[in-house]
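Lab manual, section 2.4: Encoding a predicted structure.

Procedure: take the sequence of the chain (599 residues), apply the prediction step described in section 2.3, and record the output as structure tokens. A sample record is shown.
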Amino acid sequence: MAHASHPRSRKPSLSLSLLVLYASALLALLAHTASAYQVPVSDADALRQTCSGMWAGKNTSIDLTFKPNSTGIIATIFYEWSDFDRLGKDGPEKDVFGYSLKSYVCTPLAVRQSLCEDTDLGNFIVDGTAPSVQKQKMDFGTGNTQQEIISYKVNSTGYYCVGATAVPFTSRGVHASFQGLVNFHNAFKGELPGGEYPKVGFYFGLTSLYILLGFGWGYLCIKHKAELLPIQHFISGLSVLLIIEQMITWLYYSYLNSHVIEYWRLASLNGNAGETWTARALLVLEGLLDSTRNSASFFLLLIVSMGYGIVRPQLEPRTMFMVKCLTAVHLICGWLYSVGIVLLSIEAGGTWVFLFIFPLAFSLTTFMSWTLNSLNATIAHLTARKQSFKLAFFRRLWRILVIAIVVIFAFFVLSTISFSNAGTENYPSETWRYRWFLLDGWTSCLYLGVFVAIAWIFRPTGYNMRLSMSDELATGDDPEGGDMELGGAYAGFEQHGDDSDDEDDGKKTKSTGGGAQASNGGPSLTAGPPAYEADPNGGVGEESVVMFSVGDEEEEDQSMSSTGGRSSSRPVHRPTDTHHGNESEETLMAGTDKDSKQD
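Recorded output:
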């Protein structure tokens, strides 16, 4: 095959280059590390508090920094979410539904309503005892000249909030206003929120794992470089793409963790345009690579399901063209979606967002339907022709896809149950530790599991070329096989044994000039085309003889039809494909010596 001429020597150098880039990026990111998740706050915010999950450690704390020129009285409060119900008191006023309205800040009106004391004016109201609450009133008068900081000690892991609101005391003639910054100092060093930080370690682990898998795959490719199948070339390319894609994803989150960037807006808090655009460029690049990975994976899965390289050497030109067109459409839609969700929000984008989503969903549905139909058709074809050996590969592939679909459905149900409570007050505090995994982590783990399983099934081995070039045929008195083909490049069913065993078996066959024929009517278990022992009369035994055909299945059908649907013990010569070497140059059949003598 033409693929066999591809250079294999580039694989180690490419893997080494990726490893060097990986280590360099890690060192560069460690050299510039921020120390806290930062959120800007001001009196103009619609929401007067900001919350984040925190991992407690030795020096964990929350700092609220007020910038210069803040004026008036500012009420501040720190608390852990479990004490949220203690904040505020029910006043005499009611809403349209008849529920009492709570007052959260002590004002002269609240004093008159007996909700707080005069000493609490300008402070938050707390109903009863709240162990985690720390409240403090800041009076800046006509304006402060330097920044002021309030600190709050965090002793245990949890979901913490900081509230700050301007208190309108009109009698003082000063309008309260402020601008500040909340710093969440977690146990780890970095700028990411506590709920997002696990992604750094997660994608670092995935990148490292893909690199190790790439080295293992490269070793197998080099070991069996003379017998690589087209599918294995595609898997090699996809492995490199996966390493790069996971590395960029890890770099993106590591960059956010090491720079002072507002996480949800991807804007530098220091006004550094370079940091802002670098973060956004990494996000766009990560999205483009993710879309490319998905399209390449669906393309590979579809052509494998069609039997490319194993059941048939090539797909029909029209079929391959349609597959490539569908891949291109899915890739372009994925790119547009990746860029669109960065540049447009759902609220601002409106119908534009759906123009990105619907084409992507349509192409994805087409891919999945076509893949499953093709896989079922290939399995039915191999079953009808009794290609048991090759059939085993595709049945394993079918099981992997079924398991993946079941896992997807299970996680969809779990996610639906989880996010059905997203509108409740306690949802963020209850799910901040693992919400990232429900959104991103489990899909990455599922993809890794499916990719490794498929790569293991179609991994390079010593019988690859025989798998793609040969078909196992039943002859003689086989009551079930008749003149139908039995699956496999050879008659052994231990297709997933150790490669060294295959090589040892091959050596034994060469040294004995034959190979042991299986007993009890079973097929030969040698790692190559079966060799046969001559019977005492000088012929070759016809019982349980398996022949291996090299050539197209249509030619095999014509040969069988010429015998009237009966098995023949006469030699049937198949066209050989000399391009693939000498291993598959002729068909071994029982009765060759007998017939030649009779002729």
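Check your result against the sample. Residues 37-87+119-185 form a domain with the Jelly Rolls fold (CATH 2.60.120).
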